[in-house]
Amino acid sequence: MRWRRADFNAQAAHRLTRRYGHVVIEDLDTKGMSAAVKPKPDPGRPGRFLRNGAAAKSGLNKAILDKGWYGLEVALRAKARYTGSVIHKIDPAYTSQTCPEPACGKVDEKSRKSQAIFSCTSCGHTGHADIVGARNIKAKGQAAGLVVSGRGDPSGSAKRQAPRSTARAAQAARAAA
Ligand SMILES: [Zn+2]
């Protein structure tokens, strides 16, 4: 059986909101990133157009849309209404270049060795770039004042949140943005 994207998003959203009271996602502004590139006329040659990155951008569009971030976010918010989980969007700037070790935190683009490998130029912490990015995203969400123990965290409380505290948290997130 072939999974449709919508099924995948619904399943992922269900599992995440059932297990965690606080889900932090990157605000990728996928609408802005996938907006069409306007053709740029070449002033020296009427009727001709300058290269404007349209081809590169259409590849990026496809990658973003394939990942289905927006669909996942919509599914998360829909499920969160029932579980009381807080969905929090953070600015992803530097999350791929920042050392996730709390004692370090060095920001250096050279620490990102490749698509897959992160190796801190300051303390030497090495890990999979996706895991490093996820740790930084989580830390940013927590730093914004929305520290909610995950339901899967054995040390945390498994209490569901009342709708009122969810609303306050959403306001706090907006105020912090
Ligand atoms: Zn480091």
TrEMBL record:
Keywords: DNA-binding, Endonuclease, Hydrolase, Nuclease. Residues 163-177 have a biased composition (Low complexity). Residues 69-137 form the Cas12f1-like TNB domain. One of its GO terms (molecular function) is endonuclease activity. Pfam families: Cas12f1-like_TNB. Residues 149-177 are annotated as: Disordered. This is RNA-guided endonuclease InsQ/TnpB family protein.
